[in-house]
């Protein structure tokens, strides 16, 4: 059996330095974006006062921020040539945070997609999600349900926190931990595929009425599925390959499989950057609010993003246009703070 030090050491130092750079770039880009989004949810939308998906979206962004906090630590370990921290406490604490917050991110994305499916495919029926989402307790319940699924990372000292197949007397614990890893990705992905197919079919069957909201619902659930496919499925497949190679005791192949797996795990952290862009900023209401607060120079005189097609002959009177724009912005702000889900528009 390999020693802990050998198993924790990166075989290809330049490759892991590159991985650390990737994680730092993800951290630098995603943290400010998530912080600006969470500021709007708290101080402008006042998410706790709304009976909508705002609460779910807030928890989604919160999970992403907590996950981002772990990235500098992992990047540092990779940069010095270690796959995991040799410190047992740090190692297990990192795994606990990564399991918990990535699981929360996946859970809230799934709940948002399921809610959109119920609203679009079964709009007239009362469902448990419509009732539960009126209370912030459902979000707390999701966090609490994720805790027992994360406990296996804290039960014992893993060999480099990754000992599956190496400690026979603890095989049950390892099987439970690996089952959680695969289940929290594969099951939500199947649910997302189902929701996407059902909403697309609903859009095809709708021949009259407003199809705009349906198209946005299709865009939302499709985006969730694509992010899952990009961020989570590759690392899941590579994990399966790694376990097969490890059981076959092919040490040379395992060395390469470990490097691929660690690299694809770095790719999975990209969801912290994609979540706010796809699920929050895809909403026209939230996009307008975000632009007005952080990128006002992109707002045109008609309240839409600046575009050459929006220019008119009235541009000779800037003072009048500025006053009109300010009035529109105030009306938009009032609407955003009193209306519901920013993703239903």
Automatic annotation (TrEMBL):
Q: What name is this protein filed under? A: 12-(S)-hydroxy-5,8,10,14-eicosatetraenoic acid receptor
Q: Name one GO molecular function term.
A: G protein-coupled receptor activity
Whether Membrane counts among this entry's keywords is yes
**Span of the secretion signal?**
none
Q: Where is this region: Disordered?
A: 305-345
A Pfam family reported for this protein in Swiss-Prot or TrEMBL? 7tm_1
Query: Which organism's genome codes for this protein?
Result: Clupea harengus (Atlantic herring)
Q: Where in the cell is it found?
A: Membrane
Q: Where is the G-protein coupled receptors family 1 profile domain?
A: 33-279
Give the protein family. Belongs to the G-protein coupled receptor 1 family.
The domain of life for this entry's organism is Eukaryota
